[in-house]
């Protein structure tokens, strides 16, 4: 579960899932005010690096 109640729960998910979800936030397919702003300027490579981390 996310530490912040309103934050999406991504902890413990696999790399492919996180990569896909971060790209969904970036594209607007998945909606979240903060995550959409955070991912808006990220490249695919930056999203992949974040997912792998």
Structure description:
By secondary structure, the protein is mainly alpha-helical. It has one domain (15-52). It is 57% helix and 0% strand. It has three helices and no strands. The chain has helices at 15-27, 33-40, 44-52. The radius of gyration is 10 Å and the shape is globular. The relative contact order is 0.19. The mean pLDDT is 90. This is Cytochrome c553. It comes from Pseudorhizobium tarimense.
Topology (SSEs and partners):
Elements: H1 15-27, H2 33-40, H3 44-52
Helix pairs in contact: 1-2, 1-3
Brief overview, please?
By secondary structure, the protein is mainly α. The chain contains three helices and no strands.
Q: How many DSSP helices?
A: 3
Count of the domains: 1
Low-confidence stretches: none
Report, as a whole number of angstroms, the end-to-end distance. Answer: 18 Å
Helix content: 55-70%
Please state roughly what percent of the residues sit in beta strands, choosing from under 5%, 5-15%, 15-25%, 25-35%, 35-45% or over 45%.
under 5%
Q: Structural class of the secondary elements?
A: mainly alpha
Radius of gyration: 10 Å
Question: How many extended strands?
Answer: 0
Instruction: Tell the overall outline.
Output: globular
SSE pattern: HHH
Write down the overall mean pLDDT. Answer: 90
Q: How would a textbook summarize the main sheet? A: none
């Amino acid at each position: 579960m996310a530490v912040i109640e309103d934050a999406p729960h991504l902890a413990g998910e696999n790399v492919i899932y996180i990569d896909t979800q971060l790209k969904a936030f970036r594209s607007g397919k998945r909606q979240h005010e903060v995550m959409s702003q955070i991912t808006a300027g990220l490249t695919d490579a930056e999203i992949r690096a974040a997912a792998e981390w």
